[in-house]
Amino acid sequence: MNNVYESPLSSRYASEEMLYTFSADMKFSTWRRLWVSLAKAEMALGLPITQAQVDEMEAHLTDIDYETAKAREKEVRHDVMAHVYTFGKAAPSAAGIIHLGATSAYVGDNTDTIQIRAGLLLVRKKLATVLDKLARFAEAHKAQPTLGFTHFQPAQLTTVGKRATLWMNELLMDLGEVEFRIENLRMLGSKGTTGTQASFMELFDGDESKVKELENRIAADFGFAGVVPVSGQTYSRKIDAQTLATLAGIAASASKFATDLRLLQHLKEIEEPFEAHQIGSSAMPYKRNPMRSERICALARYVICDSLNPAFTAATQWFERTLDDSANKRISVPEAFLAVDAILNIMINVVSGLVVYPKVIHQRVMNELPFMATENIMMSAVKRGGDRQELHERIRTHSMAAGKRIKEQGLDNDLIDRIAADPLFGMTRAEIEAELDPQNYIGRCPSQVDEFIRACVRPAIAPYLDGEEMQVEINL
Hints:
This protein is mostly helical. The protein has helices at residues 8-13, 16-21, 24-44, 51-58, 66-76, 79-90, 104-140, 160-184, 198-203, 208-221, 238-266, 291-306, 308-315, 326-352, 358-372, 374-383, 388-409, 415-420, 429-433, 445-461, and strands spanning 145-150, 153-159, 270-271, 355-356. 63% of the residues lie in helices and 4% in strands. It has a two-stranded antiparallel ribbon with strand order 1-2. It starts with 7 loop residues before the first helix and ends in a 15-residue tail after the last helix. The model has no long low-confidence stretch (mean pLDDT 93).
């Protein structure tokens, strides 16, 4: 509806897969799957629950009557009990055993964990795709000399491909963090109202082995290695904080990449894709604004700020639980995933179509290389019998004069002409120009690119690439 606010994360940015992960259908069908899993485990462990009741519940996992649930929640002011009631209407024979022994966190927190895992799995795959495409880019340009910058001031040369490995290295660190979160994520299990499992001890007549087996069976049903060892009513909200810290790390890496690309596009060295009918500016038709990279930076800033939400929530939980987490985490956790999903979609699009302008890059290199080559030129002159200290002073003088000419008069760099005309150096222009091959100043860049991709990147991403190109769509 056009007269109701809709989050741009849903309408403009996030993918259908991530939107489904945090959708009502995913959430409430998972609640029902958890209730079925609880009932099956309780039945297997001897409680008076029948297979017919379980079968009737399983037959209604997805046909959720949202209107009935909404009306019931308005009456009882409790979302879980509203859905217990609604599920019972769909499976009347099981109405009396749905949610048996459980508290709201059983469905709420376990579902949150399942959604977080699903979100991280999708993020992991997209991170691997970005790294794969950047690896191809780095390999293609591993030996293309380009001007390096420190403090955004001209520094020694690097290569286009080597610079790409700096972006990749941070994303690889993020991939490791995502893997760690996935591998160490555990369900809440069935812990009861204050984490003591007292209600389940009552159901199983004090048999601790059955209480422990109950939640182990539930975890196995959902493919988890186990449950958290201890808890209050809820899992520790540090899990949300750690998850969003990981997502914020991805956002930071993406923003670094996008910021560098925005600067490179200003220098006309590398550009993000620009479509045939794309408009860069409503007022300046000639413009090619880096709008995708700018969007990455904008969304990244949102995620980094959003990561404070669960940290504050974790810090302010009282004893076994309070409810001031609920409204906040309903927004902060899903939106962080939606925003990072959008960031990675844009990155996949951008790195798939990066445009490199080698002639512009070479021109900028050659404008600065004479200054960088002075050490080599000085050593060559020393080998011809020159005095190192005297030559150093003369190069300093010539460099200052050439720099002044560039900055104050807007003229070309004439440092080589000045050195060639100075008899103290005893070198012809041809001999000096032989020192100006950019390939002599890129160090181990090509080898570093090959080694990094072969030893670090490819082994890390191989498990998550299925041989098919991931298709993403940038809607607007």
